[in-house]
Specification:
The chain is of the alpha+beta class. The protein is 44% helix and 16% strand.
């Protein structure tokens, strides 16, 4: 079963970032995975957003 896809606005709300942050991320090389549907529609899978959050866990402020 295919999970519900989130809009940019919904994904931004979930990540507590602006829509512009996600738009810049896509333009700069997409650290946050997204799905492109057709020529214009951009959507995010919830599992990918959770994976991104998990990948950002750091143990020190000096850690990259």
């Amino acid at each position: 079963m295919i999970e519900k896809l989130l809009t940019t606005q919904e994904a931004a709300r979930l990540l507590c970032v602006s829509m512009a942050f996600l738009e810049r991320d896509r333009w700069a090389g997409a650290r946050i995975p997204f799905v492109k549907i057709g020529s214009r529609a951009v959507r995010y899978r919830l599992a990918d957003l959770h994976g991104y959050i998990e990948s950002q866990i750091k143990l020190s402020t000096s850690q990259r």
